[in-house]
Amino acid sequence: MADEENPVRFGILGCAEIARKICRAINLSPNSIIQAISSRSTEKAKQFAIKNSLSELVKVYGNYETVLDDPSVDAVYIPLPTSLHLKWAVLAAQKKKHVLLEKPTALNVEELDQILEACESNGVQFMDGSMWYHHPRTSRMNELLLDPKLFGQVRTIYSSSSYLPPPQFFEDDIRTKADLDGLGALGDAGWYCIGAILWAMNYKLPTTVTALPATTRNSSGVIMSTTVFLHWEQEETTAIFYCSFLSHETMSVSVLGSTGSFHVEDLIIPYEESSATYNFTSGACFADLHIGWNATEQEVRVHNELPQEALMVKEFSRLVKGIKDFKIRPDTRWGGISRASQVVLDAAKASADGGFKSIYI
């Protein structure tokens, strides 16, 4: 529950399953509250409020427009299908509502550019819903990446995000529908892999992006599983990621530098809510006669004050309060991070759709 004066008041556009997690995060964050929720019907919104034990003070609406027209709402969280992001994110920005947008942010970078332009021209904050950026573990790993002695130059990166949902998923879920969320596994799971890889490269875009022929689609042509190769020509760095709805649960990233390396198994959602670990090695080499190693891998544990999704909401709300209370300009860094991911996602899809040829960025 918010304990600061004048907390940021959120409206929720849609009652998707992920909205339950973000509602909890808004309640846990000290500088935000839930002001309103909406769905395509009032009854569905009411049932969502009951299921999630929301306060009776939370307004319940049967359409999204009413949330955007509510003067008591400062910011909106949008967990709608990707095909609806452009319409509702732009309209929210035009109504002067700050935008926390679920990933993937758009169907393509042209749509995302329209969203970002609307946010910038209306002076509202934009951020996508990638939670792992906000975990303190990520900051600790970033310090390691920037240490030339311990880590050196990034040479290659491996990332995987996959899960095997129940059979009904492939019949009913929007992520399998070409007209609702046509990016499939590439947009859902692959977004995390792309973000992790770009983060490790300080968000420098690769020279080329190439989807590999081992790509599986459903009957509607939506990607269910794919592997993608990235290359940075100047740095002579490579990366590869695998994203899938057809494999066992993974959410890992390994970054190999010239003098060190680290590995994370649970990047997207930590095994534990109150702390997370990463494994790190620096300066390792074989011992004499190659009968062992001169160093063992270290496990580093990082504790966090709030769940990572609450830390995301807290940071977003801090930026919103800065804009509201002190007329600070929105932080465009978050939009830049989302745009870089969208550019690579677009290139991966173009490669997969175009005969697996390399796409130059």
TrEMBL record:
Q: What is this protein called?
A: Uncharacterized protein
According to its UniProt entry, this protein's organism is: Cichorium intybus (Chicory)
